[in-house]
Amino acid sequence: MIEAVGLTKRYGAKTAVYNLSFQVRPGHVTGFLGPNGSGKSTTMRMILGLDRPTSGHVTIGGHPFRQLPNAPRQVGALLDAKAVHGGRSARSHLLSLAQLAGIPAQRVDEVLGVVGLQDVAKRRSKGFSLGMGQRLGIAAALLGDPQVLLFDEPVNGLDPEGILWVRNLMKKLAAEGRTVFVSSHLMSEMALTADHLIVIGRGQLLADMSVKDFISANSADFARVRTPHTEPQQREKLTTVLTEAGGQVMPEPDGALRVTGLPLPRISDLAHDADVRLWELSPHQASLEEAYMRMTQGAVDYRSTDDRLAHLQPPMPPHQLPQPPQYVVPEVPQQGWYAPPPPGQNPYAAPQNPQHPQNPQAQGPNTEDAR
Q1: In which residue ranges is the amino acid composition biased (Low complexity) (predicted)?
Q2: DSSP label at 338?
Q3: Quick one: angle between helices 130-142 and 160-175, nearest 10?
Q4: How many CB atoms lie within 10 A of CB 271?
Q5: Can you give the pTM of this predicted structure?
Q6: Are 28 and 19 a contacting pair, CB within 8 Å?
Q7: Could you tell me the pLDDT band of residue 315, with boundaries at 50, 70 and 90?
Q8: Mean pLDDT on 88-112
Q9: Which DSSP symbol is given to 319?
């Protein structure tokens, strides 16, 4: 378990985190949310002993990180996927971390298989894509088979298959009784992955509750009602009836009505009694993104504005506008929810023909692989 009590961090005159207290319990995926500059990364660095708190303290299993014996076997973390020596291969990078922590080399090959990098284990990391770098960082976090795991933006740069894999991995780790603490800006992904949320803004705690309670506390459900657009008098009649019954009715740009304060069965009965035909009567529950935006709208430090000089740019003639390339997409039979790759093919594997002129590895031998 991770526990922060009165955690405060100041950099000169700037207070990055102020009086922050929370607990991250095992057995759950805990999402760590907040706008840019809210202090999430600073908090994670203090948890891992990389920054010293100005006041307060944070412990892992009851002990500060720096006092944990053989910390890599107890805590795994991914804070910066680029924190890898570019001249080292993926396997060499993990092997050096394993040797420092007394972890057998066999474990290196195991985690490379877990993250899907076994076929590029001997390639230098400087040639890795952002998504491959994320997988290597996750492998490093899993190396010591720790009970506490911290991930900062773990799905950054991953393709849809990789995002699904990370989501299932987080849930699996939590189901094993581990403490999983994940920071992300992807609200849709957090809604599918996290069980509990810790939300901060400008370094202070805004919420510490389950995802379901967070959405309920920071949003209002409503009913969407639509009448025939050819009969505007029915829309006006229904608005009057619903308002008299205690509902709040707001028109939407597409002609529908947003109704709050009345349950769906009551709306249906009122419309039936008023002889109003309904083309739509549907419930709407706010998403995590909507609830998050409502809570944090006053804690955002960086807001974009319209470019006041945009009108000075003359419009480009239509014949000069860039045309999107035309692609011919072959028809692929659907198998499940996505088309699987060819049997035995790894998307990160090197080409089979090393002499192909387009193969970058054909430019010269890799001295590290030769060794």
Answers
A1: 346-371
A2: S
A3: 10
A4: 20
A5: 0.71
A6: no
A7: low
A8: 92
A9: G
Q: What is the residue extent of each domain of the chain? A: 1-74+146-217+287-300, 82-142, 222-284
- Mapped onto helix, strand or coil, the DSSP state of residue 81 is coil
Torsion of CA 82, 87, 92, 98, to 10 degrees: -50
Residues 250 and 258: beta-carbon distance below 8 Å: yes
How is 93-135 classified by DSSP, letter by letter?
HHHHHHHHHT--HHHHHHHHHHHT-GGGTTSBGGG--HHHHHH
Mean residue pLDDT across the chain: 83
Contacts for 158 with CB less than 8 Å, ≥ 6 apart = 131, 134, 135, 165, 166
* Host H or E run for residue 181: strand 179-183
Asked whether residue 81 carries a pLDDT value surpassing 90, the answer given is no
Q: Three-class SS of residue 194?
A: coil
Q: What are phi and psi of 106, to 5 degrees?
A: -60, -35
When pLDDT is averaged across residues 318-335 and rounded to a whole number, the result is 47
SS3 280: strand
CATH class of segment(s) 222-284 = alpha beta
pLDDT band per the 50, 70, 90 thresholds, residue 332: very low
148 within 8 A of 75, measured Cβ to Cβ: yes
Residue that the structure tokens 């900062």 belong to: 152
| Domain spanning 1-74+146-217+287-300, CATH class | alpha beta
Hey, is 187 helix, strand or coil? Answer: helix
Tell me the average pLDDT across 114-125.
90
pLDDT digit string, tens, across residues 267-285: 999 999 999 999 999 988 7
Give the C-alpha separation, 362 to 20, whole Å. Answer: 54
Q: Do 267 and 242 touch, CB atoms closer than 8 A?
A: yes
Average pLDDT over residues 191-204: 93
**The dihedral formed by the CA atoms of 32, 111, 100 and 174, expressed in degrees to the nearest 10:** 30
Helix, strand or coil for residue 172?
A: helix
